[in-house]
Amino acid sequence: MSEGKTTRSVRQGGWSWWYLLLVIQALAVIWPPFYNKVEPSWIGVPFFYWYQLLWVILGAIFTAIVYFATDSEHR
Amino acid sequence: MAEINWTALIIFIVLFALITYLGFAAAHWRKGDLDVLNEWGLGGRRFGTVITWFLIGGDLYTAYTFIAVPALAFGAGAIAFFAVPYTVIIYPILFLVFPRLWYVCHKHNYITAGDFVRGRYGNRWLALAITVTGIVATMPYIALQLVGLQVVIGAMGVSGTGYAADLPLIIAFVILAAFTYSSGLRAPASIAIVKDILIYITAFAAVIFIPIQLGGFAKIFAAIPPAKMLLAVPGANTTGSYGVYATLALGSALALFLYPHSLTGILSASSGHAIRRNAAMLPGYSFMLGLLALVGFFAIAAGVGTAPEFAAGFKQFGNNFAIPALFLHSFPSWFVGIAFAAVGIGALVPAAIMSIAAANLYTRNIHREFINQNPTDKEEAQMAKWVSLIVKLGALIFILFVPTPYAIQLQLLGGIWIVQTLPAVLLGVYTRWFNDWALLVGWAVGTGAGTAMAAVMNFTPNYPLAFAGYTFTGYTAFYTVILNLVVAMVLTPLFNTMSGKPVDATVSADYHA
Questions:
Q1: What distance lies between CA B352 and its chain's CA centroid?
Q2: What is the mean pLDDT of residues B80-94?
């Protein structure tokens, strides 16, 4: 029931709570004080670098989740 | 410069011949009537998810990106990584806004942002402002693609005096112009597939084999000067480099999909669903871009900046030579040929799409609107083909006669200009609240202020905004689009009382499936 409701409002350009995931991924990378440090480093790569690259992957996963959750016509 | 690297050059030429063939053959791919602008300029809007992925990827991640981002890391360090948050932010925007724009453009056969604004607001002058901004911001971007091509040709030791020095570049451009003219958007779409495969091979080879040669990531980062490793911590009363980093990422992200070539790529998709799927799939490129920024650090660790054999290259091309130098230093000649071909072909794909996008804009929103209002389909498509040639010729002349630093400065200005179309285009997808004349004044104020601020800062991208004892240094595009918005919001109620009922050729049902 609620599934159908979400889908309809999204397809008419409304808001879906799933979009919060998109907001989270943007917030995670937009403010450098969160991650402007060397430690913890990973295989010699400072935190600053691997943290941001990790968010590219997480961002792709989040966007895919939002896609499947809000789109009824996916195949 | 050094002697000609024949192995690399021959492989480069062979790959170039292959994509030349592909470019011309593309005219017969998913055959359509190329005498119609929708077919020539948007590939008939028939590209599915996969082709769209290659096309938008090939379109947004340009040769210049692959040279300039690592070059910035090489020269300035951590700040270059703003490209990563930038790519994380652009896909939510693509996901949320652009399917709506796709639906409305499909419904009304809009081909450009100018078409959309003309229909949405019924104001030809606002549409003209959007159009001129698009064309002007695109031109230096095309020129910059040539810089990428120039650097790799120079790095293979191809040099000469006078006009002979520019001959390879001119040949590459004549090829580009010819297949774009004959095949339209189908040419870069098919070549993008080859380009992306080559770029991926090169990027993975670079991030796997070069660190092994250099003794691992720990050793590489140990060679990076501390000042380049992280962003400088801001002092008191300023947001310092943090503000620069964040506003560069955000401002560039807002600007990206407003560029005409981005929109051309998006509108050529066969459905709104294809765009949403791509928003989740395109970060594959972002990840590679992040890895390539690290390659700039590899170049520092490999010490190519001080190696005598590369001194001439750095002198001629500046830090843009860092990546070609690193490849020459680290890879066997045959692989250098593949890597350089990847960059060179990577220049042609976006240059082709950009010239098509600029041609669509001129044809639809200047020629049709102001000069010949009732062209036949054939006349319209023919006009666009000619304009695509003129645009490319302009870019070529630009790069041959204007020193490279100017092209880079114009590109930064281009970002400041194009983002001023955000209220009319991007917000226009959601609301018809704004008054069209208020948008036009906002656009003019934003463009004027942005140009002036950039001029004061000697055409560097950031401006130290002082406010209540604090200094907020940040990307001028970001600050001026806010100014633009504020002006448009304040003037909208005022202008609404003076003008009649708003016109709008679109209805809310046009914006979704």
A1: 12
A2: 87
**B residues 245-264 lying closer than 8 A (beta carbon) to A:** 245-246, 249-250
d(CA B477, CA B453) in angstroms, rounded, equals: 10
How far does A73 lie from chain B, in Å, by closest CA? 8
Site from B50, B88, B210, B432 to mutate, A interface, most A CB atoms within 10 angstroms: B88
Contacting residues of B for A29, CB less than 8 Å apart: 84-85, 88-89, 249
How far apart are the C-alpha atoms of B109 and A37, rounded to whole Å?
50
Confidence of residue B395 (pLDDT cuts 50, 70, 90): confident
Please enumerate in sequence order all residues whose Cβ is within 8 A of that of B336, keeping only pairs 6 or more positions apart, or say none: B5, B7, B8, B156, B327, B328
* pLDDT (0 to 100) of residue B303: 86
Q: In this structure, is the dihedral angle defined by the CA atoms of residues B169, B199, B351 and B421, taken in order, positive or negative?
A: negative
Q: Cβ distance B33 to B363 under 8 Å? A: no
pLDDT tens column, B217-240 = 888 888 888 888 888 888 878 888
At A22-37, the pLDDT tens digits run: 889 889 888 888 888 8
Tell me if chain A has a CB within 8 Å of the CB of B96: yes
In chain B, residues with a C-beta closer than 8 Å to the C-beta of A32 are 231, 241-242, 245-246
Contact B88 A66 (CB under 8 A): no
CA distance B98 to chain A (A): 11
Distance from CA of A52 to the nearest CA of B (A): 7
Question: What band does B160 get if pLDDT is binned at 50, 70 and 90?
Answer: low
Domain covering B6-407 assigned CATH 1.10.443.10 in the classification:
no
What are the residue ranges spanned by the domains of chain A? 2-70
Residue bearing tokens 């901004």: B133
Q: Residue A9 above 50 pLDDT?
A: no
CA angle B477, B318, B260 (to 5 degrees): 35
Q: How confident is the model at residue A72 (pLDDT cuts 50, 70, 90)?
A: low
How many A-B residue pairs are in contact by the CB < 8 A criterion? 120
A11 has a pLDDT exceeding 60? no
Name every chain A residue with its beta carbon within 8 A of the beta carbon of B230.
36-38, 46, 48
Q: Which residues pair with B467 in a beta bridge?
A: B470
pLDDT for position A1: 35
A22 Cα to chain B: minimum distance (Å): 6
pLDDT of res. A5: 43
Q: How close is the nearest chain B Cα to the Cα of A32, in Å?
A: 6
User: What is the reported pLDDT for B326?
Assistant: 92
pLDDT higher than 80, residue B129: yes
What is the average pLDDT score of chain B?
Answer: 86
* Contacts of residue B227, Cβ cutoff 8 Å, sequence gap at least 6: B77
**Chain A residues whose beta carbon lies within 8 Å of the beta carbon of residue B91:** 59-60, 63
Closest CB from B85, B242, B276 relative to A29? B85
Alpha helices in B303-425 (DSSP H): 311-317, 322-330, 333-361, 377-401, 404-418, 422-425
Residues from chain B contacting residue A67 (CB–CB below 8 Å): 95, 276-277, 279-280
The 8-class DSSP code of residue A45 comes to: B
